[in-house]
Structures are given as C-alpha cells and as structure tokens.
Amino acid sequence: MKVPSELKYTKEHEWVKIEGNRAIIGITYYAQDSLGDIVFVELPSVGDAVEVEEPFGVVESVKTASDLYAPVSGQVVEVNNEPMDSPEVVNQDPYGQGWMIMVEMSDPSQIEKLMSAEEYQALIEA
Amino acid sequence: MKFIPHTDEERRQMLKHLAVENTDQLFKDIPSELRLNRDLAVEGGLSEMELQSHMNSLAGLNTGVDQTICFLGAGAYDHYIPSAVKHILSRSEFYTAYTPYQPEISQGVLQSIFEYQSMICLLTGMDAANASMYDGASALAEAALMACAVTRRDKVLVASTLHPEYREVVKTYLHGPGIEISEIAYQEGLSQLADIDQKLDKKTAAVLVQYPNFFGCIEDLGKIAEQAHAKGALLVVCVDPIALGILKSPGQCGADIVVGEGQSLGIPLSYGGPYLGFMACKDKYLRKMPGRIVGQTVDVEGRRGYVLTLQAREQHIRRDKATSNICSNQALCALAATVYLSLVGRQGFKQVAELCLQKTAYAKELLAALPGYQLPWQTPVFKEFVLKTKEAPEVINRELLKENILGGLDLGGYYPELAGHMLFCVTEKRSRREIELLAARLGAIS
User: So which cofactors does this thing need (chain A) (predicted)?
Assistant: First the structure.
C-alpha cells in the first residue's frame, strides 16, 4: 500500500497536501483499493464551504457509495474535474491526477489533528 | 389451527429469561394514561365462509367500470387491457412487486425492467429511465426534488393546471426540505406564459407542468422549456403516456425530466392502486435520478447480461443521504406496462391515442351542442375536456348513475372558480353508441 510520507491523512482515508494556507485533498491508495472500480465522483463547487469531518462529496464504486469527509474547514478554491469526467483516474493515480479539491483553510491549526504517514500506515495495517 | 404461535408455556419461559413477571411490565415505560387499558373494539372472529360472504357484500357496494359506462378520468383511466397482460403478469417467476435482492441471479426480471426503461425512454424522448416509482404524483414530487439537487436551487413553479392531488403530494414532499412553491395561473385552460415569465427567477429550480394538463388541454411545452432554460431552471413534465402515441414527445420539446402515471398502460383501475410512476431524464442528470436502473452489459465470455445499478446510494450504505425514499419498487406494474406496450405495438399504441382523440372530439361536439352545456375554452384537448353545465354537476352525476353511466368529475371541489364545470374523459373503450347515450341523457337532464 502506497502511503507517501509528505502527506497528512484522516481516519476516513483522505490524504491532504498542505501548500501554504491551502489544502489539496484526495483519497488514499488504500481507499480506492478497498472501494474497487470507482464509477462516479461527486464533488462540491468552487466557492462552497466545507466543514472539518463533515461530508463534502461522494465516491461511488461498483460495490458501494461512500462519503468523502473534509480533513479541514474552509472554502473550496479549486475542483479537479478529472475524477468527475473519468472516475477511473482515482483508481489509477489517487495521489496525482485523482486529487479532488483544494481548500483555502479557515483554521490551519486543524492540520495538527491529522495523521502522519506512519500513523496512517499503522491504521490500515491494524 | 392456532394462529397465535406462542403457547402459555413459551411465553412464561421468555418472561422468565427476561426476568420480568408479566408482559405488562415490558410496556411500563409508556405512561398508563397513554395506554388503551381496555380490549380492542373488534368483534370475535368469523369463519372463512362468513368472512368471504361479508367481503363479497362489501365489494358489491362498489361501482366499477365493468358495471358502468365510464366517462370519468382525472388521472385514472379506463383503457383497454389485452388479456395476455394478466396471464404473463401472474406467472410465478414474475409475481412480485419487488426488484430482486440478489439481482443478477434474476436475469429475466432484470431484462423485463430493462425493456420497460427502454420503452419509457422511447415514449418520453429522454435518455434514461429508472426502474419505476410508486405512482405519478410521487414521481413528480421526486422530480421536483431532483431538479433542486441538480440546480442547487430551492424554489419550484408548479402549474395550477397540474392535477390538484399531484400538487398536494408535491407540497408534502417539498415541505420538509423547505423548498418554496409558487403556482402558475391559467387562462383558457392553459398555463399563462406571462405568469411563468414573471415568477421565474434565479432561485427557480424547475417549472412543473402536465401534458396534456388536468383539463385535457395541451400545454405549449416548447415555449415553457425556453422560458425555464433562459433562467437556468429545468422543465419537468408530467405526462399521460397514452397521449405520447400522437403528441410530440416532451424530450423533443426541451423537457429535462419527464414523469407520469403508468396506470393507463395495462394496469386496471382498482380503487386507486397499485399504480406505476415512471421517471426519465436527460443523460447529464442521470446520477441525480432517484431509484435504480437496470443496465445491459456483457459477461466475461461476451454474453449479454443485465445488472442493477445505482442501487448502493438508496438501498445500502447511504440511505440516510438519499434524496428519495424509493427503496421498494413497482416492478410488477412496470412489467404490466412493458407487456401492454409490447402487445399493442408501435402502431397499435398510436391507434389507441388516435381513438381517444377522435372519440373525445366527437363527445365534445355532441355535448357542447346541447342546451344548458357549453365549452368554457376553445383550447385543443386530448382525452378529457371541461364542460360548463347549467345543472349542478352533482345532480347530473346522480342522474347519470341511474342509467349506469359514470359521469365527469365535478371541478368545483378543486377549483372554486370552476364550480358548475365538469371534466369528462373519453377513452378508446367508449363506443359511438355510449357517447350518444351520454349526450341523450345529459340532454334530458338540462
């Protein structure tokens, strides 16, 4: 299971990349692998507010549909259309082309509550 | 034979296991003033024969379309049903209202639903149809919710020419999510286009119209679609499927979501149900459509197969977030519609619609020529029309019933301004003789 060390993680299997005051969010390799073939991704629009630990979107695979939970609060400043147009990109490249939204954080201290790569690795191996 | 499965001994054991003395203790959380504290006011049992005879005598109090000549429509229609429909329907492998829970095993049922969806798409001119819904009214309400989800807006415009009971259902559904409803005024039996323009705004998710509308009049869908789209709203059309045998499809007129009542398609009038709601939409809204869809695919060996898709959202994990409560299905009614449509065929279906149109035109002409009756509007109609009467509709219907004729709907109850107006319906089943009989009786009443 790939768990890039430079990223932060949530227990709901989202990854977060911090760039200044912005957070780029996607789902982990483990998440896409557990979901199976992803057939649909629903994401918020630019300008929408997201709330920490609240759902901001949905991924639907052939076997299930799951909510996406926001790792931090803030406003959506960018949305990646690729997972919506070609959902398989999330399976193929979850940490790259399969990223989902970029959020302008309203409370950057929330980052401290996220998991490190080691902690996340321990979670999925447990 | 015992109908209560637990013996006193079994009950004693269960109570002992729970460490309570008697059953009453299990209900002690309910305050005693809220409990019934007496026996139910029902009589003792009847034998099977007595019960059957009782039920028969109750059933005998009903008046059905088998005993009368029916000119009543208003959402429930006396259309011809080929007898093969009921024979295919009652085959045990089909005989359930549910879509299967281990769907892919039931290829036959899935194929029938796939055929149903394909036919609904053909009729409505839409890209995708779901596997069916409860009835026309709830399908319409779901379409309104869907339009709000698609547009992320929270207001809908509803034509007052839409079935009044459908409007009530829409109101009920939209009350919870707090969606605002505004009604469109009508004139000459049609939605007022100027009123639509005036009420459409950037908050409006959809315009809901019926086609043909409650009065049987044919709304200008193309124009209403333009108006709605100009403001970023969707056009939701509630149709009488039979009319689509000859009318331009809502899809061709620019509709985004099409719903309707499928009772006309091979489902008998039976005291209001079970009926069949159908829903279809353009491809781009597919993911927001409630319910499920049966898709066609191939297996690893390239053989054709059918699969139930889009069910996870509603049935399993995300049920709490589903936009709709459609978790059961009307599969048996959908099958009836499928069998009906396949039996009458493309040409036959068109012929049914043409007969409705022609017979209605004939009835309209005959009735309007009678003294004491007149047409309030000159708008083209399909299978129903409004007639203004001098005598009270209630009196007219009572007189007609004496002659075994089910008269029209008294519109005054739904539209106070239309007191003294009746809605008559003429399907392909009405013969020339029956229509002339109606005219003769009405002539004698006024």
Answer: (R)-lipoate
Residues B255 and B402 in one domain: no
Q: Is the pLDDT of residue B1 over 60?
A: no
Q: Does B321 touch chain A (CB under 8 A)?
A: yes
Residue in A40, A45, A66 closest to B317 by CB:
A66
**Structural domain boundaries, residue B408:** 69-80+345-445
Global ipTM: 0.71
Q: Residues of A near B (CB-CB distance < 8 A)? A: 40, 42, 45, 55, 58, 60, 63-67
Report how many domains make up chain B. 2
Test B317 with A64 for CB contact under 8 angstroms. yes
Burial of A54 (0-12, 13-18, 19+ CB in 10 A): exposed
Cite the beta strand spans of B324-443 per DSSP E: 373-374, 384-389, 405-406, 409-410, 421-425
Chain B residues near residue A65 by CB distance under 8 angstroms? 312-313, 316-318
CB pair distance less than 8 Å for B312 and A67: no
CATH fold, domain A8-107, is OB fold (Dihydrolipoamide Acetyltransferase, E2P) (2.40.50)
CB contact under 8 A, A65 and B287: no
Residues B424 and B371 in one domain: yes
Q: Are residues B109 and B129 in the same domain?
A: yes
Distance of CA A47 to CAs A21, A50, A75, Å? 16, 9, 6
B241-287 pLDDT, tens digit per residue, is 999 999 999 999 999 999 999 999 999 998 888 999 999 999 999 88
- B318 to chain A, any CB pair closer than 8 A? The answer is yes
Residues of A in contact with B316 (CB under 8 A): 64-65
pTM of the model: 0.85
B320 has a chain A CB within 8 A of its CB? no
Residues 6 or more apart in contact with residue B60 via CB below 8 angstroms: none
Supply angle C-alpha B309, B241, B127, rounded to 5. 40
Q: Taking the domains of chain A in order of start, what are their residue ranges?
A: 8-107
